Amino acid sequence: MKHKTPKSSEKCEACARNTILAGILANFFLAIFKLFVGFLGRSRALIGSGLCNLSDVGSSFVVIIGIKFSKKQADNRYPYGYGKIEFIAQVVMSVTMILGTVALILSSFIVIAKRTLVIQHMVVFFVAILSAIINALIFKFSHCGGKELNSPSLKAHAEHNKIDVISSLLVAVGVIVTRKGMHWVDPAIAIFECAHVLHGSLGILKEGLRGIMDTNLPGGYLENVKTTVLRVKGVNKVTQVRGRQSGRQIVLNIIMQLNPDITVLEAKKINASVKAYLRGEDKHIGNISIQVTPAE
User: With 50 as the cut, is the pLDDT of residue 2 above it?
Assistant: First the structure.
């Protein structure tokens, strides 16, 4: 993979920032509108979807903070940079999503147990469709920005919006089915909706904790790194490759074997070639630590 120009990176940054700001406004007004219509239209599923939009607003602020601080340069206190703030942002985002859905699950079970008859107004259907379209657009741009910038918090934000797209479509389906006489469907969809949010939130939480705990990168990626290093002239063998993600950057630790007869200067040139080659393959690779041992 070739490096992108700084201008392209800045455009991605600006696009991601504008997407988040637009998402905050859109989700705030959607949340107010959904909660208002949900209470009037007696739709617990729409109320649950509105709560998801509120949590989106909170998660958007978390993402903004995470992205802002993760870009700070390393200093004496944090010599490896501030990249892990993005993983902390993921954890905070997922926890708020989890807490926001538990109460609705319990109340929906109560409604089903009491067999309360609920008939939603068709306006609930149109609000749900509008919400699905808006969140799909936010997901598209957030996913693009997260992929291009390799931002964990922005990727998590995109997944959060994808969850909202599915939940909004479920609300729309629930309105149609409920108006056909199956009155238990709305609270049942609210429960399923919350379960879906919890599942997605736990996935985001897991990824955040993996980043905080410096979990090793997937074996396939490390194997590709090993193959890439072996292509560099002068490298006899790669003994070990370890990698972790620190915010947007990937940190690699490599142990490789060189010919014992070469000079120190030649070894340094090979090291520099390995680093340049790896960064040419993946623009997100940051710090590379190389340990050289003589080949047997």
Answer: no
